[in-house]
Amino acid sequence: MFDWDLLDILLPALAAGVLVLSTHVLLGRQVLKRGIIFIDLAIAQVAALGAIVAHMHPVLEDAPFSGIWMPALFALAGAGVIAWLSRRMADELEAMIGCLYVLAAVGAMLLLANDPHGAELLKQLMSGQILWVSWEQLYLPALVSAGVLALIMARPTVLDGAGFYLVFALVITLSVELVGVYLVFSTLILPALAVNKLSCAKALGWAYLVGLCGYLAGLLLSAMFDLPSGAMIVATLALSAMVFRLVSTRR
């Protein structure tokens, strides 16, 4: 039976999911269009590496908002590297992005090898803690998401050039902090894949609906059965995308 007291936890978590979906569905479709599927994993992992560096460094750890601007700097640097590679190694870009992801992941493991709380921090960055997000944590992501959406609406071509990488890095940085690396990847790719074969004008709206259903179901199931929220939402996002893809392609 559902405990209505859980709404105090679920509502800010759902709001975080809606914020992530608001930008990631658009960016995910662009990722599929460009054929650089693993850029989200790579940039998210690089941003997580930045968060770990901030955590490990005694000066940076006490610096104001280091958990935000340090991952952002790393993500922007990673996006810059990928943008540079896209002009010089276009035919091998996906392989190079995969290498960047692996190097960032290994770097994170090495940095945390001797940290007694390293495993917990790594788990938090990978799987996220969306169920424990507070309303106060959503103010900055909400402002950034609104700014990004306004920019895309005013200048849709920003996603076609190198500006895509800058926007992508900024959005991913804040998303990793809210929901973790795995959920960032799933939110970008799964709704976009669900509608990838649709050419109608409503495809974007269907993608948002697929994502929203995945988040709602995942949050409810994780709260009711005391399951890890990030992993549960990834599973329900995948199920939502698969069901929609099967239904839409049979019409």
Name the helicity range.
Answer: over 70%
Order of helices and strands: HHHHHHHHHHH
- The count of strands amounts to 0
Structural class: mainly alpha
Mean of residue pLDDT values: 87
Distance between the termini: 36 Å
Rounded radius of gyration (Å): 18 Å
Q: Indicate the overall shape.
A: globular
Number of helices: 11
| Strand coverage percent | under 5%
Q: Could you give a short account of the major beta sheet?
A: none
List the uncertain runs: none
Fold blueprint:
Layout: H1 7-34, H2 39-56, H3 58-62, H4 66-88, H5 93-111, H6 118-127, H7 139-154, H8 163-179, H9 181-194, H10 203-225, H11 229-249
Helix pairs in contact: 1-7, 1-8, 1-9, 1-10, 2-4, 2-5, 2-8, 2-9, 4-5, 4-8, 7-8, 8-9, 9-10, 9-11, 10-11
Task: Please supply descriptive tags for the structure shown above.
251 residues, mainly alpha, 11 helices, 0% strand
What does this structure look like?
The protein is mainly α. It is built from eleven helices and no strands. The protein is globular. The model has no long low-confidence stretch (mean pLDDT about 85).
Question: Summary?
Answer:
This protein has 251 residues and is mostly helical. The chain is built from eleven helices and no strands.
